[in-house]
Amino acid sequence: MLAVCRSAADRAFAGAGARKLGKVSELGYLALGPAPVGYVDGWELQRRIHARRVADEVPDSCLLLEHEPVYTAGKRTAASDRPFGDPGAPVIDVDRGGKITWHGPGQLTAYPIVRLREPVDVVAYVRALEEAMIRTCAEFGVTAVRVAGRSGAWIPGDPGRPGDPDRKVGAIGARVARGVTMHGLALNCDCDLSWYDRIVPCGIRDAGTTTLSAEAGRQVTVAAITPVLERHLAEALGYRTWRRIADAHSLTGPAASLPDRPPAAAAAR
User: Fold this and answer.
1) Which of 253, 251, 255, 182 is nearest to 32 (CA)?
2) What contacts 14, CB < 8 A, 6 or more positions away?
3) pLDDT per residue over 196-207, tens digit each?
4) Residue 156 counted as domain residue
5) Residues catalogued as catalytic
6) Whether the Cβ atoms of residue 216 and residue 223 lie closer than 8 Å to each other
7) What's the total number of domains in the chain?
8) How many CA atoms lie less than 13 Å away from 253 in the CB half-sphere?
């Protein structure tokens, strides 16, 4: 079980479950670092919070974490995109859109669990996730862009230079169920790119993958990226304010079993 502390703000956050929520103007962030979280544990945490958000028992929130190494295969993953033999990490079929990708240490993963406004516009939501990653990259001196027909944040290659393809620095794989989002985005900070060599990332064969560190020419860590992404993601999704949640049980309910994290991380501001 996770050792947590409860602030006055968290008690108010938890108290939202006593009433049905109206329009939400604040996004709450729950950071599960710095230790990597097993994918199944993180997925179960998403599902628990998603069910409570669907029932209007909790406000909009977003999980921030690094995973233990794992390959996740979305609904459109082709057999030829999957790793052959032992890839060195589990391969888990998931209920999001898209194809296969990798998650692991050195990659910041964000799972917004938010109610979309009616009429639900999934494309606009994906564009907001892209915008948050693009703005975050810009603050570290890296120009990321959108690529037509491909989701995510990309570093454009030079079409005049053979062997210099577009490189994906941030991936998106989302699901919307009963008007509430799950899964989300993954931004490569300083992860080991050799994990991608064992799959066809996102089913795209004519592009590469990269990290913010590689593009910036210096180490850019998950810890450095996190507060920047927090700000830009809240802005891109249209929230007036955001804050960090110290008590995970204010989202999950008191009986939930949670991934371990140090008390200092839980109390961070």
Assistant:
1) 251
2) 247, 249, 250
3) 988 877 666 777
4) yes
5) 202
6) no
7) 1
8) 15
